Amino acid sequence: MRKSAPHERSRDTVNIWEGAKVRLRPIRTEDWQAFHVGEQDSEAARLFDAIYFPRSEEGSRAWAAQHGQRRAIGDDMTLAIETTEGELAGRISAHGCSARHGHFKYGVLVFRPHWRRGYGAEAVRLLLRYYFEELRYERASAHVYAFNEGSIALQERLGFQLEGRLRSMIYTGGTYHDEYVYGLLREEFTLA
Question: Domains (ranges, CATH) in the chain?
Fold first, then answer.
C-alpha cells in the first residue's frame, strides 16, 4: 500500500479543510480576544506585516465580527487556523487572486505560543491543496521579509522557489529591508 504525502488525503476524508494538526475555518466573533492578544506581540506583527497603532478591545471585537460575517471576495479569503484540539492558533489568507491567470498570493500568521509546531506548514498545505486541486490555480506566491528567517525556512520546506528580491522594500525598526518573492507551481506541489 502506497503511503500518501503529507498534503494528500484519502478519498474518504470528510473535511478538505482539516489536517492532522489543524483545521481552517471562518473567523468567529468570539475569536476577537485571541487576535487582540496576538496583536500585542510587536515582533510577530513585524514579521507578518507591520506594527500598527494599538487597537481597542472594541475595535478587535468589531474586526472579528466583520471577518466572521465576510464571505470570500472572488477567491480572496481569510480563515482562522484552529488546532484539532479547538485552540485558535492564527490565520491564513489568500489574496491577489487572479482566476484568469491562475495565480494567488498567501500569507500566514501563527500566534507565538504555537510557533514551531507545524501548524503554519499544515495550514499552508491545506490552502494550497484547495486552490490547486479545487479552483485550478497554477501558481502560488509568498512575499517574505528578508529578516523573517522562520518564514524563509517555511517556504523552502514547502518547496517554494526564490524567484526574486525587491531591494529596500520594507521599512521597520529604523532600517530598510529587502522583500523576497517565492513561488510554487501546482506540479511542484503535487510532487512535493
Answer: 22-191 (3.40.630.30)
**Cβ–Cβ < 8 Å for 56, 39:** no
Spatial CA neighbour of 99 closest among 82, 129, 68, 74: 74
Half-sphere exposure of 91 (CA within 13 A, CB side): 23
> The pTM is what?
0.89
Q: What is the DSSP code (8-state) at residue 55? A: -
Q: Tens place of pLDDT for every residue, the chain, 192 residues?
A: 334 444 454 455 579 999 999 999 999 999 999 999 998 999 998 998 899 999 999 999 999 999 888 878 899 999 999 999 999 999 999 999 999 999 999 999 999 999 999 999 999 999 999 999 999 999 999 999 999 999 999 999 999 999 999 999 999 999 999 999 999 999 999 754
List phi, psi (to 5°) of 137: -70, 150
Q: Which residues touch 138 (CB under 8 Å, ≥6 apart)?
A: 101, 102, 103, 132, 185, 186
